[in-house]
Amino acid sequence: MRKPLISGNWKMNHNHFEAIQCVQKLAYLVGKEDFDRADVSIHPPFTDIRSVQTVIDADRLQFILGAQHCHWDDKGAFTGEVSPSFLSKLGVKYVICGHSERRELFGETDQMVANKVAAILRHGMTPIMCCGETLSERESGQTEAKVLGQVRAGLAGRKPEQVASMVIAYEPIWAIGTGRTATSDDAQHMCAAIRHAVAGLAGADAAASIRVQYGGSVKAGTIAELIAQPDVDGALVGGASLDPDEFARIAKLGA
Ligand code: 13P
Fold first, then answer.
1. Which of 23, 43, 228, 238 is least surrounded by Cβ atoms within 10 Å, i.e. has the fewest?
2. Domain CATH number, residue 179
């Protein structure tokens, strides 16, 4: 069955010194038996990735290296952007794309997200493609239209076996950084709806294999109930991933 994936998205937090300390502390707290039950990825800022990779390699840690964002072209005149090929060379395995902060604050469109999904896969990495509705969209009954529209746009043109390998993170925007978590019923409902949409786009096998995470104010105290839902295959964790003690307890699935 689908192994849960717990991902720590540090956003724009932790310089590379703090990143090294954080990973070393996590290494003491999360053990082999925990990695047997869940995959755990860490998504530091770009400037920390090389440092974190060195710690993971030197200490043979089971944390999986991730990134928060990338461009879709391999190289070119794109000042400030980072190529997916550079990330794969650094040993990055998972790349977040389409995060609501990138969509809302930096104008990323569905088409850009689809381009990134294609580029990440082209370089042998796994996209964690985010989708989610605002509070006003939720209150006006547009949650499914918004979220499933983002899913369809982001997966457009991808082969079923590519879709099967991916991760989709359902992150309701009103729950991000607010302390408001979707109820486990709500999370299950939307993760199931996403899986159903994937079945329609890429077939039943892809839908059975793709991992659907929930994200939005996940804490050690809420992870167990979320992960117990049949269609919730892990969590994309922001604020709580900055504290190694808290994130370790999430990586242990609340145990
Ligand atoms: P919080 O866990 O801080 O709500 O952030 C969620 C998120 O945006 C992860 O990508």
1. 228
2. 3.20.20.70
What is the residue whose two structure tokens read 């504290």?
Answer: 243
Q: 68 in ligand 1 pocket by Cβ < 6 Å? A: no
* Rounded Cα distance, 133 and 139, in Å: 10
Residues 218-245 pLDDT 10s: 999 999 999 999 999 999 999 999 999 9
User: Taking Cα atoms as reference points, which of 74, 101, 98, 103 lies closest to residue 87?
Assistant: 74
Nearest atom of ligand 1 to the alpha carbon of 130 = 10
Best residue among 237, 246, 247 to mutate for probing ligand 1, ranked by most atoms within 8 Å of CB: 237
Query: Residue 185 burial (CB < 10 Å; 0-12/13-18/19+)?
Result: exposed
Residue listed under structure tokens 């991760």: 167
Closest to 22 (Cα-Cα) out of 240, 253, 255: 240
Contact (Cβ atoms closer than 8 angstroms) between residue 126 and residue 94: yes
Residue 240 CB–ligand 1 contact under 6 Å? yes
Tens-digit pLDDT profile for residues 138-160: 999 999 999 999 999 999 999 99
Q: In this predicted structure, what is the pLDDT of residue 179?
A: 87
Separation of 214 CA from ligand 1 center, angstroms? Answer: 10
